[in-house]
From TrEMBL:
It comes from the Bacteria. Residues 20-187 form the Glycosyltransferase subfamily 4-like N-terminal domain. Keywords: Transferase. PANTHER family: SULFOQUINOVOSYL TRANSFERASE SQD2. CDD domains: GT4-like. GO terms for molecular function: glycosyltransferase activity. This is Glycosyl transferase family 1. InterPro entries: Glyco_trans_4-like_N, Glycosyltransferase_grp1. It comes from Sphingomonas turrisvirgatae. Pfam families: Glyco_trans_1_4 (PF13692), Glyco_transf_4 (PF13439).
C-alpha cells in the first residue's frame, strides 16, 4: 500500500485540553503523519480553553468531567451519533486508540464491525492509579480489564521493553511493538542553564537544586518526594528543592515541602531553562510508561534518581547516568541523592553521559515506527 492511501482515525481521551506527556507524543505523531502525506482525523473530548493548538483535524466527542476532584480531565461515555457519523464519512482504513476508556472500547468495537485493523498505544499505567486514592484493592480487576482490552486489538505499541514485558506478564498475547519517545534537542540541552535565573529564585551558586518536573498530582509520587526531602534536610545535605509544574495537588505538596521553590507551569524556552537549572532530577513515580520528563532532564545533562520501575529502567543506566532505587525506599533515595549532591564531579559525569545517551532519541525516526506498523497491519488485512 502507498502511504498516501492510509486513512487513520486516532482516538484520544485527552488530545489537547490538558498538557501531558501522552498527548505531546500523540501530537508529535500526527504532525509526522501529516508531513508524510497520511490522512489523519482525531477524535477526543475537547474544551473551550485547550492547553495548546492541536495538530491535525480534531473532532470533539461529548464527555463528562472525571469525578473525585479531577474534573480537569474528561471521559467520553462512548461514540455518540455525531462523531460516529463523522467517522463513517471519513472512512478510515485503520483505527488507532490511545487510551483504554469507553471511547477507546467503542472505537475498537466499531473497527471490528467494519473489518478494519486496530492499533493501541499504551501511554499510562492506569492500573497503578487506584493505590494513590485508597482503592488499591481494585488493581487486580483493573489489570484483567486492561489485558482483555489489549487482546482485542491487532497491535500494541509501548514506549519501551519494560512495558512490553509487563503487559506480556499480564497475559497480553497481541503482538507488541516499540514506539519510544523523542526529545527536542534544540530546546533541551545543557546550554540552557542560566545561573542568574537560579540566583533570582534564591538558589545560591554551588548549592544543588533537586528538581521535580511534571504535573502536581498524587500519582507522580509526591508523597515519596516529600518524605525524601525531609530526610535530606535531617541529614543536613546542602540542597534546594525546585518544583517545576502545576496541578491539583500543589497546595498539599507545598505544605509537605514548605521550603521548596515552586516555579509554576513552565513552557517553551522557560521550561528548557528550568530543566537545565536542576542539578539532580528526582522522579519517584511508578506510573510512567516512558517518562518524557526523565529524557528531557537527561538531554539537559541532569543526572537522574528514579524509581526502579517501567520507563526509568529503559532510560537510566545505573551508576552511569543516574541511580535507580526500589520504589518507596526513602533511605535509599536519600542515599542516592546525597551522593550526587555532595559530589559535583559525579554530577558532571552522569550528566554528560545522560546527554550523550539521549542523542539517538529523535522524533522523526521514532514516529516512523508507528507509521510502519500501520502499513504492516493494513497490508496484512
Amino acid at each position: 500500500m502507498d502511504p498516501g492511501e492510509l486513512r487513520v482515525a486516532l482516538f484520544s481521551g485527552n488530545y489537547n485540553y490538558v498538557r501531558d506527556g501522552a498527548n505531546q507524543a500523540l501530537n508529535k505523531l500526527v504532525r509526522h503523519l501529516l508531513d508524510q502525506g497520511i490522512n489523519v482525523r482525531v477524535y477526543s473530548p475537547t474544551t473551550d480553553t485547550p492547553a495548546f493548538v492541536p495538530e491535525g483535524d480534531l473532532v470533539s466527542v461529548p464527555a463528562l468531567p472525571v469525578p473525585g476532584g479531577r474534573g480537569e480531565y474528561k471521559v467520553a461515555l462512548g461514540l455518540p451519533k455525531a462523531p460516529r457519523a463523522d467517522l463513517e464519512a471519513f472512512a478510515p482504513n485503520l483505527v488507532h486508540v490511545s487510551a483504554p476508556e469507553f471511547l477507546g472500547h467503542a472505537a475498537v468495537a466499531w473497527a471490528g464491525r467494519q473489518g478494519i485493523p486496530t492499533l493501541a498505544s499504551l501511554h499510562t499505567r492506569f492500573e497503578t492509579y487506584p493505590r494513590y486514592y485508597g482503592l488499591q484493592f481494585i488493581e487486580p480487576w483493573l489489570i484483567r480489564r486492561l489485558t482483555r482490552f489489549y487482546n482485542k486489538v491487532d497491535r500494541v505499541m509501548v514506549p519501551g521493553q519494560s512495558v512490553a514485558d509487563l503487559i506480556a506478564s499480564w497475559g497480553v498475547t497481541t503482538p507488541i511493538g516499540i514506539w519510544s519517545r523523542g526529545v527536542d534537542h534544540a530546546r533541551f540541552n545543557p546550554a540552557r542553564r542560566d545561573d542568574a535565573w537560579r540566583r533570582n529564585l534564591g538558589i545560591p551558586d554551588g548549592v544543588p537544586a533537586i528538581g521535580f518536573l511534571g504535573r502536581l498530582v498524587l500519582e507522580k509520587g509526591l508523597d515519596i518526594f516529600a518524605e525524601v526531602a525531609r530526610e535530606l534536610a535531617r541529614r543536613n545535605v546542602p540542597h534546594r528543592i525546585l518544583v517545576i509544574g502545576e496541578g491539583p495537588a500543589r497546595d498539599w505538596f507545598a505544605g509537605q515541602v514548605p521550603d521548596a521553590i515552586f516555579t509554576g507551569f513552565q513552557a517553551g524556552e522557560d521550561l528548557a531553562r528550568a530543566v537545565a537549572g536542576m542539578d539532580v532530577f528526582f522522579n519517584p513515580s511508578v506510573t510512567e510508561t516512558f517518562g518524557n520528563v526523565t529524557s528531557e532532564a537527561m538531554a539537559s545533562a541532569v543526572p537522574v534518581v528514579a524509581a526502579r520501575a517501567t520507563g526509568a529502567i529503559d532510560l537510566v543506566q545505573e551508576g552511569v547516568t543516574g541511580f535507580l532505587v526500589p520504589p518507596r525506599e526513602i533511605t535509599a533515595y536519600a542515599d542516592a541523592i546525597e551522593r550526587l549532591a555532595r559530589d559535583p564531579v559525579m554530577r558532571a559525569s552522569f550528566g554528560a553521559a545522560g546527554h550523550a545517551s539521549m542523542q539517538a532519541h529523535v522524533w522523526p525516526r521514532i514516529n516512523q515506527a508507528v507509521l510502519e506498523a500501520y502499513l504492516e497491519l493494513v497490508r496484512e488485512r
